[in-house]
Amino acid sequence: MARNLDLGALRSLVTIADVGGVTRAAGFLNLTQSAVSMQIKRLEESMDLQLLDRGQRQVGLTPAGEQLASYARRMLALNDEVLTRLTNDAFEGEIVLGVPHDIVYPGIPRVMQLFAAAFPRVSVRLISSYTTALKAQFARGECDVILTTEDRTDPEGEVLAEVPLIWVGAPGGVSHRHRPLRIAFEQGCAFRPGAIEALDRAGIDWTVGVESDNSRTIEATVSADLGVTAVLSGCEGPYMEPVPAGLLPPLPTKRINIYVGRPFRDRPVCAPFVAMICDQYRREQIAEAAPAA
Predict the structure, then answer these.
(1) 174 in the same domain as 237
(2) pLDDT of amino acid 77
(3) Residues in the chain with pLDDT < 70?
(4) Does residue 274 contact residue 260 with C-beta atoms inside 8 Å?
(5) Of the residues 79, 212, 260, 287, which has the maximum number of CB atoms within 10 A of its CB?
(6) Residues 150, 151, 152, 153: what is their CA dihedral angle, to the nearest 10 degrees?
(7) Which of 259, 272, 236 is nearest to 134 (CA)?
(8) Rg, Å, the chain Cα set
(9) Per-residue CA distances from 67 to 28, 45, 75 (Å)
(10) CB-based contact 272:124 (threshold 8 Å)
């Protein structure tokens, strides 16, 4: 039959170790000395161990008591963390996160899943849009945190990763061989100017195959082998594949940046939420850079 340790008694044991006696521990715990002594006695009986050395003028812990106190500190820390996160009003509410659609996968769903498990009383509202639109919303205070894909990083931002752009087309497609080259980009896409500049520099004639403000339209066009587009390396969808190297001119790199709103910085959930995002994107960059086995 499973036995359970009394967390109240463990807290008393740790306090005795910290302050050097039962009487002082009782004062810190706002309990009577007899109540603390009874807790320790019951703990000793349940474990069949002597935890306090009562032979000294100042009561101390036995070796078994010291070992148990070490475990108890970790158990109490976890207990207190759970109660703080699940019951503290500071760990509830909503976070508004803005992310360009082309870097939502695979990192953001993982972050949201992990964060929801750790902070179930905090909801995350995801906004997906262009970097320029997200920065405008951020400036108006409509987003707590945004990620961006940019050539540079503003002073209040932080670089999470620097990722090359790549050409992508349909799996097994041939549209990248056609001239003029048909390109497909969303209206206002930040990747379009760099792609066009690279084509012009290489002397490759091009034409706009489709323009849309909907990423699904672009994906459908490219996957149908009716054009090519540029995406961040590692962000190509399941119905696209990189154009073989050397067939189209190389493209510049883009920075994935994070911006955190000043009001949000004061909320207790800010640090763990931002840390989860940073860890995820930096882990992806490390995985992308690792050589294949």
Answers:
(1) yes
(2) 87
(3) 1, 56-57, 285-293
(4) yes
(5) 260
(6) 10
(7) 259
(8) 29
(9) 22, 17, 13
(10) no
Q: What pLDDT score does 293 carry?
A: 41
Residues 188 and 246: their CA atoms lie apart, in Å, by 27
The CA-atom distances, in angstroms, between 8 and each of 15, 98, 132, 292 are 11, 44, 54, 52
Residues 135 and 37 grouped into a single domain: no
Which has the closest alpha carbon to 85: 114, 121, 116? Answer: 121
Query: Model confidence over 146-175: pLDDT tens digits?
Result: 999 999 999 999 999 999 999 999 999 999
Look at residue 210 and tell me if it is in a domain. Answer: yes
pLDDT of residue 292: 46
Q: Alpha-carbon distance 115 to 83, whole Å?
A: 16
Q: Give the 3-state secondary structure of 16-50.
A: HHHHCCHHHHHHHHCCCHHHHHHHHHHHHHHHCCC
Tell me the HSE value of 185 on the side-chain side, using a 13 A CA sphere: 20
Dist. CA 43–CA 86, nearest whole Å: 28
Q: Do residues 9 and 39 lie in contact, with contact meaning Cβ atoms separated by under 8 Å?
A: yes
Count of residues in the chain: 293
* CA pair distance 164, 239, nearest whole angstrom: 20
Q: Tokens 């703080």 map to which residue?
A: 84
pLDDT value, residue 28: 78
Residue 121 and residue 76 in one domain: no
Q: Give the pLDDT of residue 253.
A: 94
